[in-house]
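Per your request, structure below.
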């Protein structure tokens, strides 16, 4: 009798366990819908790159990129000093930016005289910037004399625009 009870208990347990097993679903659910991941939007810089001429002009103002001189002069006056101080602030803020100071002259005088005068003008601007703490190793000078005028004409207005030292950044 004990065998019968034990067998009955085992069969009942087996049936109970069989009833608890998961049954395979009649229908398979559809696969998940894949939503395409949007490609990242290309990032464009917010403005001109640091050290570019455009960045320099935006930072200091276009008028502050050029200093002007009187006829046959290369001295830095108060107006030039203010412009060069603005440039020095920029170059102090961006110590990896190198630049060139271009010396120019008006059309009067010989080619040789104007090249020498342009060189003195470029060096005067460079020396002033160096006196404000900008390392001379970052500054290159070049003289174009009368070869690259910004204003064409043989009058005082044109000549005044051509007697200059222009600062140009190097990328």
């Amino acid at each position: 009798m004990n065998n019968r009870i034990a067998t009955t208990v085992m069969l009942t347990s087996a049936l109970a366990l069989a009833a608890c097993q998961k049954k395979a679903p009649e229908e398979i659910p559809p696969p998940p819908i894949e939503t395409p991941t949007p490609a990242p939007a290309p990032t464009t810089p917010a403005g001109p790159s640091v050290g570019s001429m455009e960045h320099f002009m935006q930072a200091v103002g276009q008028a502050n990129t050029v200093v002007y001189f009187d006829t046959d002069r290369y001295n830095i006056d108060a107006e030039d000093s203010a412009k060069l101080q603005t440039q020095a602030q920029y170059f102090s803020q961006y110590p990896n930016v190198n630049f060139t100071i271009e010396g120019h002259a008006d059309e009067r005088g010989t080619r040789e005289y104007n090249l020498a005068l342009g060189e003195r003008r470029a060096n005067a601007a460079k020396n002033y910037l160096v006196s404000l703490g900008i390392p001379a190793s970052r500054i290159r000078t070049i003289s174009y004399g009368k070869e690259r005028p910004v204003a064409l004409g043989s009058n005082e207005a044109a000549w005044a625009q051509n007697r200059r030292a222009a600062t140009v950044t190097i990328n």
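The chain has five helices and four strands.

Regards,
D.
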